[in-house]
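Hi! If you just cloned this repository, the fastest way to understand the data is to look at a raw example. We've pasted two of them here, unedited. The first protein comes first, obviously.
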Amino acid sequence: MNTTLETGRPLVVSQVLAMLLLAGALAVGIAFEARVGLLMVVGAALGVALYHAAFGFTAAWRVFISERRGRGLRAQMVMLAIAVLLFFPALGAGTLFGREVTGFVAPIGVSVVVGAFLFGIGMQLGGGCASGTLFTAGGGNARMMITLLFFIVGSVIGSAHFSWWMTLPAFQPVSLVQTFGAGGGIAVSLALFGAIAAFTVFMEKRRHGQLEEAPRINLSERRWLTGPWPLLLGAVALALLNFATLALAGRPWGITSAFALWGAKGYELLGGDVSGWGYWQAPGNAAALRASVWSDITTVMNVGIILGAMMAATLAGRFAPSFRIPLRSLAAAVIGGLMLGYGARLAFGCNIGAYFSGISSGSLHGWVWLVAGFAGNMAGVRLRPFFFTGGRSQPARVKGS
């Protein structure tokens, strides 16, 4: 059942959610550190921006692959351009507002290529990426809750096989910031973003003769609360909020490491033991496994994203879960979720941790992830007709996922 803001009910529910968010942020801030509580609020802001701007990666890539419409891809290039302008000077200096900061810079090898390719297929079958899964699940999409569950399962399986994948050939990590300096890295990155954007313009005009016109949205006072937001506003918001994450957490925004942690803790509650797996013997992962899940920054931000998306969906009058999921669509959610989780572990992250934050960190592995992930999306688009009538799985409002 959809509601409108005038009824007062969405406003009351959103106020309850806001109180829950603030109480949770205060609790983790007191129990651990104030910055951890603030990061839950940043996560909520990410959830609101993702939902109201319908900003995602899966549909943007699918639309370009199948229809040659590139507006979503160009918005991603704007997001990345703003991010590198903010990130590279801080990463080059090593500090931001007095706090030590590091980027997500990872090796480039077989695991990244295979993992990103699998993740790309999973995006199209599961119906969303890592951020898309969180904000659409938080927005009341019941099917995406299934995808999220099996995303977690796939992450655990990926962590079990992680050590074997790490034995395969790989190059050492490469950082554009270290190789070219902050200024040189920015120049190289902006040139690449511009080339990708120009390519989408060329392909779109070649197919359609002109560029798709963006919907005109009047951001009145109410629109800020109920949405929708322009896609470019979402791009700017995500870049700024990722920078806020860097300032508070000392590293960029990530999502999927928390899924592996949740799954591992759940597996141990059932009597399993993951401590002997190579992935969980790394110092940071081992410490996270021993500690409270609420001390994990990624977990706290993910919970914030879900709550923020729930608030946004409620204010928009669109929080109306439907549990009528066709069997083939359900199967795609299960298969896609497993591929998303498994692929993210092999590739050192997802569309956020590896693609968005990896490229924003100057890591060459982020660019490799982009190429392999896009190839996986191309394969996934071809597989979609076997699972979805007309190749679609998501309501129009969350088509950005």
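Ok, and the second one:
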Amino acid sequence: MKIFSRKKEVEAAPVLQTGTRENIHPFLELERYTPLINHEYRLYSALREAVPIIDAAIDKIVRLVGNFRIECGSEQVEKELNDFLKTVKSGGCNQGISSFYTVYLNQLLTYGTAVGEIVLSGDCREVYALYNSPLKNIELKYDDNKIDTLVCVSGVGYEKEVLPYQNLLFVSTLNPEPGSLKGNSLLKGLPFVSDILLKIYNTIGVNWERVGNVRFAVTYKPSGDSDRAMSRQRAAQIAEEWSKAMHDGHRVSDFVSVGDVSISVIGADSQILDSEVPVRQMLEQIMAKLSVPPFLLGISWSTTERMSSQQADILTSELEYYRGILDCVTRKICDVWLQLRGIEADYETVWENINLQDEVELSQARLYNAQASQIEKSLEVDENE
């Protein structure tokens, strides 16, 4: 199948000087493959399900990344390209590159690696859809030049099949280690802290179940020899009457006994440990890793206006980093669309400002720059006179 009509000259593969030298042994191919699914990924999925604040923070990051548009020198190409990005199928009943990036960025932040595919129409003349590839059957492999990455799928048995149209595939990694093909999850380092947090929550639930469902201790103290002789029968009678009083539906029932009988609540004297401080310490560690300000997640910790502004600036820088990763994918999708139509055009991705506060700050910055420029011009005029 011929994807593009224009043929490219075969160039010599670049040589990498700092790459790892190959060792000669009969199972050399096994070293080149990097599986993308393991027990760690299942742990991260369980972590998002067990700790709601982690799941909410990742969803908040994905939504705050925002939308973008393509600006091009040709108005006609710009309109058609933007219409394509808004209407392209992205799996299921969804359409548009925004819905595709929602799944793609969720996968990238949770697992550290995201894989997508450009699906062409039957005649290979149009981009039919964008596909979010599941990681369970995908592996990555270094090309012979030790730089380019090849996407493979699991074949029969232990065979790995290199997909033939690598130009229609794209892979994004988050903070990869040197020499590694896969990235690191945003949740890396949180299982230990989250485990402590879940232990605290579980203990709170158990303690409140014990305290809420009150248990009583009924103690009968015989006063004389006659009472001691009949202590067993009287204890059984007291237990029967107490059971009737406690299980008599929702009606008020009285408990009548003879002798020295005391009733106390089990566990009433013990205090439940204060969990506010340790829970806050664990949440601070989680939010420091996710770089999401507490006020965005509904946590009303004491903070100042200046501190909130600084936290928002830090989050903005994080979002700009994620936008840079998505820009590479956007450029590959747009390049394929332009090549299929035989169009050569320069374009750029223009993201929307993250919030209204950025709009105000940008306006103030332009105002201050204009005022400074005006003052500088007036000073130059005064010096010339």
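That's it. A detail worth noticing about the second one: DSSP finds ten helices and eleven strands in the chain.
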